[in-house]
Design a protein that fits this description.
Distance between the termini: 28 Å
Oligomer: single chain
Radius of gyration: 17 Å
Number of strands: 7
Largest sheet: 7 strands, mixed
Order of helices and strands: EEHEHEHEHHHHHEHEHH
Strand content: 15-25%
């Protein structure tokens, strides 16, 4: 697994989501590395980490991350995951709770896919198998940002990177998300602080779900942003950076 390390101090790990890579955290990592040691991986099949498995699951991603942290001799960290990275974060929190001093879900939720969502994922996989990644990626990215977000150059850059991912990797990761189980109990039983950041207009992590999970953790730091869809890291950059910094200071 390819990853970057910057800064010194308490460790924070930033996990990207589906059709993304560690690049999405570039500015966030630069800011946080002033006070923390920041680890930013490219998950298998994305960015600089090649797709090598026949199948992918959120649990496998979590196990890969555990091996990475062992290699870096990390005993405790704060783990923050965006979208699919949030699903992986929940699996990690379930399997390796003693390694966490806090964790966060950004534009993500703890519930399994609905029947309709699973059908849409299957259709997406069929489309990618027949047509490749480019059209699929462009269509998906059309729905990730709120209309008020005007940085078209950034969207073009993110889209261009995602278009290069292999169809097999996309299908495997999408199938892994489709097959995941609810992790509602992980939030309910969390013994460390939990950060929840979501957009009110998010279509991928709908408000109907993200608002339900807000009351589950014993210690929760909850943020909902208006005029924000699935990419709060960019759409509400200042607010997201501030929320993460305050959360990390609280965990420390």
């Amino acid at each position: 697994m390819y990853y970057k390390v910057s800064g010194k101090g308490k460790v924070v790990v930033l996990l990207h989501g589906f059709l993304e890579e560690g690049f999405m955290w570039k500015e966030m990592a630069k800011t946080l590395s002033k006070n923390y040691k920041v680890i930013v991986p490219d998950l298998e099949g994305f960015g600089n980490s090649p797709f090598q498995s026949k199948t992918l699951s959120m649990e496998k991603y979590a196990d890969d991350l555990y091996e990475l942290l062992k290699n870096e001799k990390v005993k405790k960290c704060i783990l923050l995951g965006h979208s699919m990275g949030g699903y992986i974060t929940l699996c990690f929190a379930e399997k390796y709770p003693d390694m966490l001093s806090g964790f966060g879900l950004i534009n993500s939720h703890c519930f399994e896919d609905s029947s309709d969502k699973k059908i849409n994922r299957k259709k997406g996989n069929e489309f990618v198998a027949k047509r490749g990644t480019k059209v699929f990626v462009r269509e998906l990215y059309r729905h990730l940002f709120h209309p008020s977000f005007k940085n078209k150059k950034l969207i073009t850059s993110l889209t261009a990177k995602a278009e290069k991912y292999s169809p097999d990797a996309l299908i495997a990761a999408n199938t892994g998300m489709m097959n995941r189980k609810s992790k509602e109990h992980v939030l309910k039983n969390a013994k460390v602080p939990v950060l929840l950041i979501n957009g009110k207009q998010d279509e991928s992590a709908p408000f109907a779900l993200t608002s339900q999970q807000a009351s589950l953790p014993i210690i929760a730091d909850v943020h909902f942003y208006d005029k924000c869809k699935h990419m709060s890291v960019f759409e509400k950059k200042k607010e997201t950076v501030s929320a993460i910094e305050k959360f990390m200071a609280f965990c420390r």
